[in-house]
Every structure is written in C-alpha cells, then in structure tokens.
Batch of 3 targets.
Target 1
Amino acid sequence: MAAAEPAGAAPLWSATRFMLGAARAGQFPLDEGFEVAVAGRSNAGKSSALNVLTGRRSLARVSKTPGRTRELNFFELEAGRRLVDLPGYGYARVPDTVKQAWQRLMTDYFHSRGSLRGVAVVMDCRHPLTDYDQQMLQWCGRSGLPVHVLLTKADKLSRGAGLAALHQVRGRMGHLYRGGVTVQLFSARKGEGVEEARAVLGGWLGYQSDRKKKAPV
C-alpha cells in the first residue's frame, strides 16, 4: 500500500477532469497518491451520481444503453487525487468474451492499485444487493477496502420507503461484508445526499472536511 500523504483542504469537485480510459492494466496511470473507485450495476445511476458529485453535467456520459462503458475511466481532481469510474456490470447485452475481459480488468485493478483507498458502490434503492453487487463487495473484501454504498434514485420512493430500504441494506451489509462499510440514500435528480457522499469520498482522497477544520480544538 502506498504511503499516506498529508491531508489537504477540501476538494474543489468542479475542477475534476477526465484523464484517460484504460482497457488493460498496462494503461493505468502511475499508482501514487489517493484513488477512489465508483462501481455499480448498469442502470443504477452511477454516471448520474458522478456528474452530480463533481458538479459536472457531462463528466461521465449518461447513456441510454446501460453497460456501454467498457474501460476504467480515470478522472483527476488534482495531481495525485483521482476518481475511477468502473465499468457497469450485470445488465449490458454483450458477448460472454467481453464480460470475461471486464472481469479480468477489474481483478487486475483491485489487485494492483496501492493508491486505491475505498470504493463507492452504487445500488438502485429499489433493487439493492443484487448478485452482481455482492460480487463487487467480494472484490472489495478481498482487497481489504472500505465501502460506501449509495442507494440511488431515492426520489423514486416515499420518505418512509426510502428509510426502510436504508435500514434493510444496513442490516444485511453486516452479514455480507466484514470490512468497513457505510450506507446512505442518494438522489442525483434532487441532490439528496450529495454532501454526505462528498465528505466520505473526500476523506478517502486525503482531504480535510470543512467540518473538521472548523471543529474546536
């Protein structure tokens, strides 16, 4: 694991820019600094979540054809701090050979990145913890990574139903994942949960939150 760097000021999310897309491990950028991956089943709202978190409407393309992304897309907030958009899984109608290539790419990524500090796993709050979600959690578990679950499309449920889904997933995660895990409701359309998610991801990226900086000594 790469050595930790001192925490800096809160990130300027809107400065996030596309670095590169990698179809194989040899194309990954230099493994240094801090890196946070964003994973999720296709059609769960992963691209929309990335766009609203960074305040960049077209940073991650929102496709009408789920599963279109077939590379790991690296985005840089500043030198040494990156977000990584992992390929959507479980929905795309693609040949088995392509799915197998995705799995090899994901395995190479999780096994090789010392700078990877945590994974945000995006799940549709109406259909959480699918078999594919659980496979992603297994990858994270084998790598000893903390996980933050974004239960997206919370605006599709009533407040009561959303809270029920939140409590249910939190309860099940205790049995499914032995590493550090947090869960929250999230809506890209209404902006619900954006600051909470930014605080978690920003902490993994080595930033100090405004709350910490203003806390009394």
Target 2
Amino acid sequence: MSAGHHRWLYRPGDSPLHRLPAHCKLLGLLAFVFAVVATPRQAFWAFGAYAVPLAAVVAIARLPPLFVLRRMTIEVPFLLFALALPFLAAGERTDVAGVTVSVNGLFGAWNIVAKGTLGVASSVVLAATTDPRDLLLGVQRLRGPAMLTQIATFMLRYAEVVTAEARRMRVARAARGFHARDLRHVAVLAHSAGALFIRSYERGERVYVAMLSRGYAGALPAGADPPARAGQWLAVAAVPGLALAVAVAAWIGVP
C-alpha cells in the first residue's frame, strides 16, 4: 500500500506555472476552453490568436514541444472523424482539389480540429505542470462533487498497487512456464483477471475497514494549502482574459 502512483502526464519542474495553485489553473483552463468553444468557427484568425499565448505558456512551463505533441495523440480518433465529415455531411457542395465535398462538413471538420486541438493542448499543459494529487485537491477546494473526488483519489492512489499485483501474477505464470501465444490460453488469462479482481476487491475492503477504524466518516480531510495570492490569480487570468477578449472580438466581427 505504500507504493507510489505513476505520473503519466506530470512532468516535475520548478517553472512559474508549476508553482501556481492547482485550483487557480483549473479555473483558468475552464475559462480558456469556454472562450475557444464560444468562438464562431468562421473566425479563422481567432484560433491562431489563441495558439500564440498557449505556445507562450508551454515555453514558460519549460515543456519540450515533443513532450506536448506526443501526449496530444489522444485526439487522433477525433481528427480522423473530422476528416470524414466533408465527405459524409449533407448540404451545399463545393470542389476542393478536384474532390466534391460538403461546405458544412468542411466547417464542421475545421471546428473540431481547431477547438479540439486547443482544448487538448491546454489540458496537457495543465496535467504536465500539476501533480495529480494537487489537481484533485484543487477540485476539492473548488467544491467539486465530493464523492467523485474521493473515487478519483483512490483510483490514483491504488492504480499502481493493482498494476504491481498484475505484474507479480504475470511473473508467477512465466515462472511456471506459461506464455500466452494463441486463443487457447484465453481461459488462463481470464482466470488471472478474475483472481486479480477478487484480490483488488478484498484489498479495498481491508482499506475501507482500516479507514473506518481511523475515523473516516465519508469525507477526506481538506488540503491545508494556503489560499492563492492576488498576484497568482492575476498571472492565471492573463491567458483566459486575452482569450475572452479574442472571442468577443470574433463575435463582433462576424457578419
């Protein structure tokens, strides 16, 4: 139970962005994403304007561009769907490079690609500069759903425990000469998965009883971090404030 959890997205550092309180960064992310989503899709210039401060934030956080790009591959399925829209959508048609496509589909694809990419990139920056535990404490400080926050906390804490248990079971199977090669071995793997589930369930019961014996009454103790300073709020508000101004300008300029 003392094993630490993996930090798949978090990149330890001491940049100004790393030092900002998690709940401030969460609110800043929500405001930035709201401005991006609210922007009319035909305001092409606005999305370029959003990318500039976002790139500046990546530089301030000292995140390697390849690090960010690799973690943005999660949006690839959505990009593939967006590429299919010009061919699947109905409505007015036009020719692009000799291919007939839907005008609405083109705008829809652009809308998904531009807004989705900016949203995913900003989320990756938040995850890379905020420890997962601090992120959950930030949600708790913002009065997020208590039950969901507790579930996420336990998942984060014990994911490595369950993974280590699965690793030990795999080593034990290999020590007995078992190597999965074809469908005939599915039954063995299914039994192992069932045993892992039972062990995890029993461990969870023991952990819950231990928590009750230590006074757990349905709520985790709140974080003791000091409140954010005015300067920190101003630093976080810079990018969302600029994004909101761009969104308003985009709407004013829409014909």
Target 3
Amino acid sequence: MKIVQCLLDISNEAPAGNATLSSCILGQNKEHLWEERQGQVVDTIVLHYISAIYIDPRRPFDLSLILRIFCDCGVSSHYLIDRMGTVFRLVPEDKKAWHAGGSVMPAPDTRTMVNGFSVGIELVATPESGFTNEQYASCALLCRDIERRHGRTFTYVGHQDIAGEAAVGLGLRKDVKLDPGPLFNWVFFRGMMSDPSLEDDGE
C-alpha cells in the first residue's frame, strides 16, 4: 500500500482541473478543507465513492478533476484510493473532514453528525464501474493500519447507511446518498480485512 501526501490545503500546488489546488482553496476563502475535532473518540470508518463522470464523462477517474470537486463543493475526506490502489492522504486523521454531511449512525448507535468521530475514505469509482481488486486490497490494508494506530476495532459503514432516509427524516439533510452502492462487495472487503496473507508491501 502506497500512501501519497496530497493535503487539501493552500500549500498544495497539485493540479485541480484547470487551476491548482491551492488557488481553488484560496478562492473559497479557506486555508484548508477540514476543521478541528472536538475531542470525540474516532471509532468509525465511512466508505464512499467519487468520480468526475458528471464533469467530463471521458475522464471519470481523473485525479485533478476529482480534487477540483472537493474544492468546488467544499467537501473533503481523509483518504482517496485511486483505481490502481494508490492511497492519497487528503486530511490528517486528527482533523475533522467534511465527508458525511448531515448523518446518523444506524441503530442501535444513532449518534448524529458522523464527521466528528469518523475517518472518511473515498474510492474512485462511478455508479456503474465497480471497484478494482487493488482498491479493495489497499482499503483493507489502510483500515487495518488505522485500527492498529488507534488501538481499537472500528465500525464500518457506507455513506448510504448514514445519509439515507433516516437522516432525511430527522431533518439532518435534504437528499439521500447512495454510495458506495450495491457494487461494493462488503463480504469480499471484510474477508480481505481478516486475511493474514494480505500484507503491506511497504511501498
């Protein structure tokens, strides 16, 4: 699993569409796309998907276009995993990323505003593309590493599980989220999480 530093802050001159990430964030009158956590224990991982298919259908997996989406929409996630399994660190784990929006944990938990106690992971995919084996492997290795560093077992949910009809019914949001969707194979992912033969190559 290779992790590339690509923080969503004004020090990052990476391409973001036809501009730089730095200029896009400055254009939002921000220094970075995260905020401080308020002392909550981090114990949840939320899986999402993201692509640029609605910006340029010819380049749905283009990293620069996806980075521009974060800026234009004022959202963020701690990690992004591309189709080849490269992991990009976008937000430090000790900061609150803006990935869940109005949200509520499934019963019996029912905590709201999930950003405060979660780590967000975006997988580059479209509603129809599915996910690559490299993405599953990197996601599993990343999640195992997160659990090891935090010293606890995490709860795993999809964005759809916390930002669906229940969240709308509570008045936390106006729309429902559908990611990572039915093509994300939770059984396969959990199997990789517990597979002792899956080892980090240290790249």
